[in-house]
């Protein structure tokens, strides 16, 4: 058949000589959107320069280690504070908020200590007693006992009082607990402040009361980390099972597409049905049990999610959600039953295309690897930029002072005028900042870092889409399948998409990803402004911000849709981005009914496949980690929160299934767009035969004829 074909007719009816070695409609390609390619290269060079500057000035230790009043890190190896990992506050009462503590701006001297104090002790009592050696470790480094008590306390050389404390985020907080409804520190409800007065524990609580939330978050994080340490290998096994199931499903689709689609539909309905049945049984089992009728609102948020499973309302909510999903899926299947047959034909054709380009199933690993590189570079650059500030020292005083809060130099402060104006003031480390040009540009550099991350991440995704589209388009536009296919269609498509030369399209990919990155960075800025405006009472500003966020969300979704189809046209014709986007958009608009009832039905069926794999693996993980499988009941590890590995397995399984099915999705979209183009350009005659396979031609052209007949009847 290929030997009989002599010409291919171009878009405007211009005959072009048929090349039997050509694997697509247009073979005279040119390098497209060169300017955007140059911009991308220059932006990457600038991004590397920003990274070098950040790595030169940044210091991640500022995030890892707490810093004392002299700006020295606590617990850092190779320094004099190596064995002093905890930060101790002389007077925790002066710290009115834990936010002040976490930002190192508490107006009291702070030193690095080997361990937090474990007893009540005042400087007056410890002075000239056997406890003084213990007390000295909480005084400033190099303290010599050559001053009077009043001078030591005035100069801030030692704290006035020690209270029992425990480390939290490498900082010493009072060991506050409740006993029979009474707040206590250690075994006391009051404490001596070191100046001869006794104070209530509630004053200590004011200094660290909101740290309880930080403490609970830290405890939750530690328990989650413990769960990962004992269950990580079972999580990996669950993800391997998901990968095997996904691969098996894809392979079976290659040979049994029709049967597998119907099996998938039935299995999804059965899995949801079993979920509804299980929720009902749990709901019925809890009837009459003490505490099971408490509402979710009354219970509030609990870090131990197992508590919710003892409430009837929880299982009722699960049952309603699953029932709604079940009804929606069944109704869609009833109304789309005829379209499902057509979608199965398209999936069969996609299965054949994937079968001839089997290495395409492994391409998501390339995309995943490149995205990991983008994320790693962005995260490291962001950390180094955020820690490239200089240490800023400020004047702190416990009483009112005219110069309090001003910057100072700790080396010259004792002999300065400020120290004479405020005799009890201290020049101590406050935070990291700076007033230089570089420091003022840090916010802009962070925005540029985020923008480049979006641009490069979208470029990587675009590269994957163009590569897969080029490989599957070469399959569709081959007259004699698979004889006319190139030896390595995936590698050929990858080379056309990425490499620089007269037939490649790096610039077009850069253009499309640039547009999407601009919209995404605008959305990030809007989210930032929205957070800043939350405290405002201007309802119009909030309404305007909500409208803008909604509009740009819709715009991003539309650009994603347009880019995906534009990349397919780039892979087919080699035209620039704007031309490809315009042609793809109008081609889809001319075939809007097919897009709605065929392409989207196929996407729906592939979504059911993902849900089937995720649901199956998720149910297996649930029964395993909750010790409900008797055969391996003793094998499952003991956990603080069994939802941690279960959610990890479910999310990981979805990502794995999405990676495999995304290849099918791209294949279906490419074949569908090629089919619409083929239908417009050719008429099935000997001079202009269809490129589509006979099986696809029979069912799709039959459907087109039926649609034309229905239109005629309506008219």
Automatic annotation (TrEMBL):
Protease in keyword set: no
MF GO annotations: antiporter activity; choline transmembrane transporter activity; ethanolamine transmembrane transporter activity
Gene Ontology CC entries for this record: mitochondrial outer membrane; plasma membrane
Transmembrane feature ranges: 32-55, 232-253, 259-277, 315-335, 355-379, 450-478, 508-526, 566-585, 605-627, 639-661
Catalysis: reaction(s): choline(out) + n H(+)(in) = choline(in) + n H(+)(out); ethanolamine(out) + n H(+)(in) = ethanolamine(in) + n H(+)(out)
Superkingdom in the source lineage: Eukaryota
Lipid bilayer topology: Multi-pass membrane protein
Subcellular location as annotated: Cell membrane; Mitochondrion outer membrane
Keywords, in A-Z order: Antiport, Cell membrane, Glycoprotein, Membrane, Mitochondrion, Mitochondrion outer membrane, Phosphoprotein, Transmembrane, Transmembrane helix, Transport
Main location: membrane
InterPro entries reported for this sequence: Choline_transptr-like (IPR007603)
Statement: the UniProt record of this protein carries the keyword Protein biosynthesis: no
Cited function: Choline transporter.
Family membership noted in the UniProt record: Belongs to the CTL (choline transporter-like) family.
Matches recorded under PANTHER family: CHOLINE TRANSPORTER-LIKE (SLC FAMILY 44), CHOLINE TRANSPORTER-LIKE PROTEIN 2
Assembly and interaction partners: Interacts with COCH.
Protein name (database record): Choline transporter-like protein
Lineage, uppermost ranks: Eukaryota, Metazoa, Chordata, Craniata, Vertebrata
Gene: SLC44A2
